[in-house]
Amino acid sequence: MVQRHTLAPQPRTLQTGEMVPAPLLHVTSLAKSVPGRLLFDALDLDVGAGELVAIVGESGVGKSTLLNILAGLDRPDAGEVTIEGRNLTTLDDKALTELRRDRIGFVFQAFHVLPYLTLRQNVGLPLALVSADKQAIAAQADTMLERVGLAGRGSGYARDLSGGELQRIAIARALVHRPALILADEPTGNLDPETAARILALFAEAVREHGAAAIIVTHSDAAAAVADRTLTLTAHGLIRRHVG
Asked: Is 90 exceeded by the pLDDT of residue 219?
């Protein structure tokens, strides 16, 4: 068994004496620019365990860039990102890689599914990085395939899948190792409404069942509707949006 050690965030105490858990994800004063243009500035965000947050906004405002920063795949120009008490901006590349491997699940817009691996191997990749128990990995991968509507297809190859099926593989892979933080970039963009509803329900269930924190970047009102909060990304940070 692989032991994983994480630094737990410290709770805070209200004036009433009630203990409030520290957020799983804590973002302060985040800023990012691209050549000739500010994407966002002074961005603050707290996401607690068991909370699902949707982020919406106009194209080009930097939603995918924000997800990449939260995952440690990109560096901000200013500000800090803390996951379970660990400040990503102070970690070296090796520590960031280990944190992403162990504690973050990411659904990329481009899927990044490996075409010449089986569906079972694709979904089981996060587990294979930390365990040599092939039987257990296969069993967990098959369970996730069933949950995304691809039961019995583990021995098939990713190269033969449709766009919607590839998206479901990417989602199953992101959830299989029960990450602390789930980041998803348009996770239902290529899915029909019925399958999208099933996947959104799976996201919500995984977040609450495992005490994860999740952020979905989306243009879908249906996706935003399942979130605990919906926030609009602007050049000056995040604004609460009321969906009703």
From this structure: no
Q: Is the residue at 174 inside a domain?
A: yes
Residue type, 109: Q
Tens-digit pLDDT profile for residues 2-14: 333 333 334 444 3
* Segment (H or E) for 170: helix 163-175
- Do the strands 51-56 and 78-83 form a parallel or antiparallel pair, or are they unpaired? unpaired
**How far apart (Å, rounded) are the C-alpha atoms in residues 174 and 209?**
15
CATH no. for residue 175? 3.40.50.300
In whole angstroms, how far apart are CA 175 and each of 21, 40, 93, 169?
Answer: 24, 29, 23, 10
**Number of domain units in the chain:** 1
Is position 2 within any domain? no
Give the bridge partners for 12, in sequence order: 20
